[in-house]
Design goal:
Helix content of chain A: under 10%
Radius of gyration of chain B: 17 Å
Strand content of chain A: over 45%
CATH topology of the largest domain in chain A: Porin
Number of domains of chain B: 2
Number of strands of chain B: 0
Shape of chain B: globular
Largest interface: A-B, 77 and 63 residues
Oligomer: heterodimer
Largest sheet of chain A: 16 strands, antiparallel, barrel
Structural class of chain B: mainly alpha
Number of domains of chain A: 2
Number of helices of chain A: 4
Shape of chain A: globular
Order of helices and strands of chain B: HHHHHH
Number of helices of chain B: 6
């Protein structure tokens, strides 16, 4: 059931969670209008295209990881499997979905065995329509486009450090996803500047693990390809409960002559605020032991979180700062060993966090003969 | 704080404006593209002069396999794919066509980047 009965909600004093007939109808009309407008203005919908380009095929991909971590001396085992399915339809449509199966295995007091449950979740399941070179429309369940970590750096085989940034939950809603409709795109404004944007509306769903909040927001960013600099900002307005706002900024820089990545994000809401800055350097410019060092990456990240006026279970309950250093070795572009050491400082006590493990990603076609 | 009643019409109006603007851009871009495409082999390094939408429309395709386009494709591959992850090895063409479409949505890479990267990755 997507909507809680009004009577129960009123009894609980949660007026904003009561989505009766009027707001529900408004939501449907709103989504219909957006979708209709987008279709109306997508001239490519009416174009008949002849193409000699390779015909896309359905693909199955997956990111997997097995990471061991020690938090304050307690060992945890974290196996993870995240399959991705991509199904292209025609020349403009794409169905894409990612699920995650993961577990946090730990030792109960007095036991030497590891126990834990497998957690399942659907990260996204969306239908994309590439209307034209400026506009793509996505409907369904999608990753909330607030800042860029959630959409672009989150997969285990991409992230440089296996732990999440402290501020990651800010602005994303429950389970980091939204359910509704989104418009997005990226295009060149000039020879030196590209603009990308995303705007979305999400409705309330309370069924776990497909839950999402009722909110709307967007993100806009600039990319300078010559300098390889990306800057942007995000905004989100909650349309339920406290009806609060959240905003954030991000940047990424890859100086072209150096194999260095510098990234960072800032986010603020009534649940808290904070930032993280991360740099990763491939040792490919060092002449000695070149075969080994060119596959080696060193990473450093610093982050701080400051509590807000509203508590959130997935955010730290006290002001926290973390320093982390990582060392990754790429056996191949899709298989690597990862490790890191971090020190976490808070009024609840300081602790060391160690991680070590492997990540792997594979891609395969879902049709016989498509790989030829 | 933005009231809900005001926010939704504002949001819809904003999206409608974006749709109108993109449609206008689409129409104005098409005629230019024809002439630009003819000269594209000499000017592929310009990000504005590339085979934009209408050519891309005939296209998902016939990007010419000359050295300049291949060079530009590799350049954009390094610049775009490397923004998030280690540049992957090449996949078979039909798989690559799906992957670049996925990246078009996920990483909001531009239409021209998508086509040039596809060209480079399927050489």
């Amino acid at each position: 059931m997507l909507y809680a009965p009004c009577v129960d909600v009123h009894a609980a004093g949660l007026r904003s969670r009561c989505l009766g007939d009027r707001p529900r109808a408004l939501t449907i009309i709103f989504c219909t209008v957006i979708f209709g407008l987008a279709l109306l203005f997508s001239s490519s919908l009416w174009a008949q295209e002849e193409t000699d380009a390779p015909k896309p095929v359905p693909i199955l991909s997956a990111g997997t990881a097995f990471v061991t971590n020690f938090e304050g001396g307690s060992p945890h085992l974290n196996p993870l499997f995240a399959p991705v399915i991509l199904i292209p339809l025609g020349s403009h449509w794409l169905i894409e979905s990612r699920a995650t199966f993961e577990s946090d295995l730990s030792q109960p007091p007095g036991s030497s065995e590891f126990h834990g449950e497998v957690e399942k979740g659907v990260d996204y399941a969306q239908l994309d329509y590439i209307a034209n070179r400026f506009l793509t429309i996505a409907a369904g369940r999608f990753l909330t486009p607030f800042n860029i970590y959630n959409e672009r750096y989150y997969p285990v085989w991409i992230r440089n450090l296996q732990s999440d940034p402290l501020i990651l939950p800010i602005g994303l809603g429950p389970s980091n996803a939204s359910t509704g409709i989104m418009t997005r795109g990226g295009f060149s404004m000039s020879q030196k500047v590209e603009l990308n944007y995303a705007a979305f509306f999400s409705t309330l769903i309370t069924v776990s693990p497909m839950d999402s909040s009722r909110f709307a927001g967007g993100r806009i960013g600039l990319y300078l390809p010559d300098q390889r600099v990306e800057l942007g900002g995000s905004f989100q307005h909650l349309l339920q409960d406290e009806r609060s706002n959240a905003f954030g900024f991000y940047f990424a820089w890859q100086p072209p002559p150096v194999p260095l990545d510098v990234r960072g994000e800032y986010a603020r809401s009534n649940q808290g605020s904070g930032y993280w800055i991360e740099s990763a350097y491939r040792l490919s410019q060092i002449a000695v032991w070149h075969d080994v060092l060119r596959k080696t990456q060193v990473v450093a990240r610093v982050q701080q979180f400051f509590t807000g006026t509203v508590t959130n279970d997935v955010l730290p309950s006290v002001n926290t700062q973390v320093f982390e250093f990582g060392l990754n070795y790429y056996f191949h572009d899709n298989f690597r060993a990862v490790s890191s050491y971090g020190r976490r400082f808070s009024s609840q006590g300081n602790e060391n966090v160690w991680t070590a493990g492997f990540t792997y990603r594979f891609v395969m076609p879902m049709l016989l003969g498509a790989s030829k | 704080m933005i009231a809900k009643r005001a926010f939704l019409p504002f949001f819809a109006a904003m999206l409608a404006s974006v749709g109108t603007w993109t449609a206008a851009q689409e129409k104005s871009a098409s005629p230019q593209t024809e002439s630009v495409v003819a000269a594209s082999t000499a000017s592929v390094t310009s990000r504005d002069s590339k085979p934009a939408k209408s050519n891309a429309a005939k296209t998902e395709t016939p990007l010419k396999n000359d050295g300049a386009e291949r060079f530009e494709g590799e350049k954009r591959f390094r610049a775009n794919c490397g923004r998030c992850h280690v540049a992957p090895h090449k996949f078979p063409p039909r798989m690559m066509a799906t992957i670049v479409r996925h990246m078009r949505v996920r990483a909001t890479i531009t239409d021209e980047d998508m086509h040039l990267i596809l060209l480079y990755m399927t050489q």
